[in-house]
Design goal:
The chain has 335 residues and is mainly β. 6% of the residues lie in helices and 48% in strands. It contains two helices and 28 strands. Strand 15 and strand 16 form a beta hairpin.
Length: 335
């Protein structure tokens, strides 16, 4: 039937046009981290080029940059009301910024490179992970965040230690009662925020863990590792719920806030890339079913490993950041 053929053609065309990515060109070096604000209208990107950048997530228009760091920026977090941004950098500083003006509110100075930074629920505190450096072991510092930027100090409330090697991700657990940390030792540590006591330790992966994301409902989290697995965990018991075998080192992961999907990104290490084509390097973002662990699909596009992925808060689009210096924002079709 001609009518059916025409409908099919239209649907194919629509799906192709809807999934065409918005390409965000602005970074000169590999991407390291992506973060949407709570509403999802802004996308914050960090890269090795010293300049965190903010974009309109729907159009890909660059809104502005935050100038001041003199080293790679490894991660960032944005407050719930989208007024404050906090960034962690290899230049041994954590900086607090005004989102709208791009002005630096405060600089926390360290003697070790800063890797990951996250606000607490309510933004009265932030935690930052410090890399091992010049004989100092890795640790996680809890900082007090003042309501008035003029009153901000560099006060450290508490320091947590225990990981061997870098701590790649640190996040607050439910109601800020615990802190979850993962790192190069392949372990997940759950620590009491008040006392600093270690509550649980799980040897989660055989290789370094590069990413950790908590689900929207706060009941579980996902980890991504160089051992080619992403794993889903219960946030309280640290019981492994699901495993996703991806057949390539996994650098980044996220859990869909809308569907029973998880998103993983990775590929061969950058140093090995020249030895194979982009197809063999497996530089796609892949979707898996959260419950059944089946691979649902893959989105190609990056000319190098995918270093960061993030779902939009409404679950209808996602962003990926690659070793190639590009951010790609994919809007899913209505189906």
């Amino acid at each position: 039937d001609v009518d059916d053929v025409w409908k099919h053609e239209r649907n194919v065309r629509r799906s192709q046009s809807d999934m065409r990515p918005v390409l965000l060109k602005g970074h000169e070096r590999p991407l390291t981290f992506l973060k949407y604000n709570k509403e999802g209208d802004l996308l914050f990107t960090c890269a090795k080029d010293h300049t965190p950048t903010v974009w309109y997530s729907d159009s890909g228009q660059r809104v502005g940059t935050y100038k001041g760091h003199i080293g790679s920026v490894w991660s960032c977090d944005v407050s719930e009301d989208s007024t404050r941004l906090i960034t962690a950098s290899g230049d041994q500083t954590v900086r607090l910024w005004d989102v709208e003006s791009g002005q630096e509110h405060h600089k926390f100075e360290y003697r070790q490179p800063c890797r990951c930074v996250t606000f607490s629920l309510g933004e009265k505190y932030a935690i930052v992970s410090l890399d091992p450096f010049m004989g100092s072991a890795s640790s996680v510092d809890m900082l007090r965040i003042a309501e008035d930027p003029a009153e901000q100090t560099s006060e450290v409330v508490r320091t947590f230690s225990g990981h061997s090697g870098r701590v790649t991700r640190c996040v607050f657990g439910p109601c800020n009662k615990t802190i979850l940390t993962v790192g190069e030792d392949g372990c997940i540590r759950q620590t009491d925020t008040e006392t600093g006591a270690l509550l649980k330790l799980v040897e989660a992966h055989e290789r370094p863990i590069g990413d950790l994301k908590i689900s929207k409902d706060g009941t579980c989290f996902i980890t991504a590792s160089q051992d080619k697995y992403a794993k889903l965990w219960d946030i309280d018991t640290l019981e492994c719920l699901k495993e996703y075998n991806t057949e390539r080192p996994v650098n980044a992961c996220d859990i869909s806030p809308l569907m029973d999907h998880v998103l993983v990104g990775g590929g061969q290490e950058a140093s090995q890339v020249t030895l194979t084509g982009s197809r063999a390097g497996k530089f796609e973002s892949k979707f898996y079913h959260k419950i059944f662990c089946d691979e649902l699909g893959a989105v190609k596009g990056h000319f190098g490993p995918v270093n960061a992925v993030a779902y939009h808060p409404d679950g209808r689009s996602f962003a990926s950041g690659g070793e190639d210096g590009y951010v790609r924002v994919h809007h899913m079709d209505a189906d």
